[in-house]
User: Fold Rh blood group, D antigen from Cyprinodon variegatus.
Amino acid sequence: MAPKYAPSLRSRLAPILLILQTGFFIIVRFNICCEASAVFFFSEFQDVNVMLILGFGFLFTFPVRYGFSGSGFNLLVAVIATQWALILNGINSWYNTKIRIDLKSIINAELCTMSALISIGAVLGKTNQVQLILIALLEVTGFILNQWLLLTLLKVRPLNSIMLLFVFGSLFGLMLTWILHRKTQEKRFEKEKFDNKSGLFSMLGTLFLWMFWPSFNSILVDENHKLRAVCNTYLALAVSAVTAAALAVLSSPRGKLNPIQMQSSILSGGVTVSVSMSVVEHPWEAMALGFTAAVISAVGFRYLKNLMLIAYECHDTCAVLSTYGLPGLLGWLVQLILQIKNSDDHTVMLRFVVFHMCALFITISVSLLTGILTAFLLKWKFWRTPQNNKCFDDQAFWEFPNLVVRK
Assistant:
C-alpha cells in the first residue's frame, strides 16, 4: 500500500538550490561583467519574459490539482536555467578573462531555457522539483553543446541553430517520458484531468504565447527583415488558429471544441515559421505553413498521443511531439524545399541538402542522447520520484491551510 504522504524533499531540494545559486553567484562575481545594451532590446526582453513566465507558467496549469506546481515550478526552473545558460553561452565567447553579458545575451539564454520548458511539458505532473531542475540544467547544457557543434562543424547561423530548439526540446522530452514510464499507468493518471477553472488559466497561457510569438520570431532577425518576420508569423498563427478550431470540431465525436487540443494546435503555425523563417518570404507561404502545421498538430494530438502511450508506453503529458516536434520538423522540411527551389546551381543545391540534413542529424542525435542520459539519471531512487497517487497533485509539494470548518 502506498504511503499517505509524499516523501519529503527537504534534504534534496534546499541543498541543491543553495549550492547552485552560490555557485552562480561566485562565477558572476569573478568572471562576468555587464555591458550597456541598445534600448531596442528591452522590449524584446520583456516579450520573451512574458512568454517564459506567464505563457508557459499558465499553460502548465491545466491539470485540475496542479495549478500551483505548474506555474510555480515553471518560474523556479526558468530562472535557474537562464542563469546557467548565461554562463555557458558566455564561455563560448570568453573575452579578456571576463564573460560579458547584456540584454541580448540574456535573451539568447532565455531562448535556450525555452527548450527545457518544452521538454518539461512531456513529464509534467510526474516529477518533483529536484528532477525538474536537473532536467533544465542538463538540457540547457545539451542544447548549447548542439549549438556549438553546429557552429563549429557546419558553420550554421545562430538563427537557424537556436530555432531548432523546438525539435530538440520535444525529442529530449520524449526520451524522458519514455524511459521514466510507469508500468502501472497504461492509461491516464487518476488526477490528470482539467475542469473549467484550470482549463481557463491554461488557455490564458496559450493566449500569451500566441500574442507574443511574432515578436519572439523577430528577435534574431536583422533589422531589414524584422517586419517581414512579424507579419508572416502573425498570418501563420491566425490560419493555424482557424484551422485548429475546424479540425477540433470535425474530430470530436460530439462535434464540440476540445480546449486542450485547441491549445496544442493554434501555436503550431508559429513553431513552423520559427524554424523556416530565414526562407519564408511571401505571406501566402506563411499562411500555407500555418494551415499544414495545424492539420499535423491536430491529428497528432487526437490520434498519435494515444498511439504512443499504447504502443510505446510513452506518456506525453502536454503532447509536445504534436505541438512542437512535428511542426518543427515541418519547418525544417520547408526550409530545405524552398532553399532548393531558390537555387539555380545544382552543385550548391546538393551541398545545401547534405549540409541541412547533417544539421538535423546532429540535433536529433544530441537531443536523444542527452535525453536518455538525463532520464537514466532521474531514475535513481535518491531523487524520490512521487508515487502514482501523488502525481498531478499540489498537496505533495505545497502547504495549504486547513479548509475544514470546525463547528
Observations:
- The longest helix spans residues 346-378.
- Residues 40-393 form a domain with the Ammonium transporter fold fold (CATH 1.10.3430.10).
